Amino acid sequence: MDQPITTPIADSDVVASLSELPGLVGAFVAPDSPGVSRVPEPWQPIARSSDPASRCATALARWNAEFCDKVPTFMAAFRAQLADVRVWLTDRGEHLLVYVVRDGDWQACWIGWDPWSAGPKPRFWEHFPGWLRAFLDEVHGGFTQPWGNSGPLSREDMLTLAEIADEPDGIPGWLDAWDDPAGRICSTRLVRIATNGGNLDYCLSPDLTPEQVALVYEGDIDPQDLASELDDLMSRDLDPERRVEPMRALTPDEARARQEQWDELRALMDNMPEARYAEAVYVTDEDDRR
Fold it and tell me: How confident is the model at residue 260 (pLDDT cuts 50, 70, 90)?
């Protein structure tokens, strides 16, 4: 198996980008700091190492082989572009792994959440495929870019679409709004496990097979192969032809204009259940980015 091509990273590059996001403000754990002893034991070899290549190899060695086999396009590009892996301590006392990838002048990072304190299992956990359960239980309790896209969400964020829309008993009109409600999966039985950062959600459901994922776009549901879709989602930003440039912060005038647009949109959505769900998802994601 090819070894990652590693290079040292400037702490300031990553610190600046992560510290813009609520819940991720913090700092790297220095190899010679007393804080290493408080890092989760399986991650301590990463925290103690001063060698990027060693840190990358140690981190990737923990990944379960079946998960890696399910996302081959992602793993090939990820290994090739992985520059470093560091332990990050948030100001809330949470330890994370930050995987930094670099391709020429382009740089990005993925966040690997601590699997040992990831909270309760999501609903319908027994219906998740074994390779995904093992990854979330033993490797990372979530693995996404800082915005929460491009990989499995943290377990605490794997909610049903009904819960996301603040309608835990089911989104009103979710079934009635469609010509064939008998063939439509209830919003209480769709658990969002990933998102593309926009309006496309990746959901598991006991009404599908464990190897299927429901692609939900503004209420429309399209069952597909889970492994293929997850591989495509995770590898997108590693492909120079497909990656999206990082979002910049809005200016005060842009933020006010965006809020006015949302206020107008909400006024139109009161009687549109499928649109109300889409708005709940998108507004939540937008708010998280500010």
Answer: confident
Across the chain, which distance is largest between two alpha carbons, in Å? 63
CB burial class (10 A; 0-12, 13-18, 19+) of residue 175? middle
Q: Which two tokens stand for residue 37?
A: 């002893």
Can you give the pLDDT at residue 183?
Answer: 62
**What are the extents of the domains in the chain?**
11-148, 155-237+242-289
| Residues constituting the chain | 290
Confidence of residue 20 (pLDDT cuts 50, 70, 90): low
Select the more confidently predicted residue: 41 or 272.
41
pLDDT digits (tens, 9 = 90+) for 216-244: 988 788 999 999 999 999 999 999 888 76
Task: Evaluate if residue 96 carries a pLDDT over 80.
Answer: yes
Query: Pick from 159, 212, 209: which is nearest to 187 by CA?
Result: 159
194/175 Cα distance (integer angstroms): 23
Please name the residue ranges forming H helices in 120-240. 130-134, 161-164, 226-235
For the chain, the helix, strand and coil percentages under 3-state DSSP, each to the nearest 5: 40, 20, 40
| Cα 59 versus chain centre, distance | 18
The DSSP-derived string for 24-37 is T-EEEPPTTSGGGG
Closest of 157, 155, 160, 179 to residue 171, by C-alpha: 160
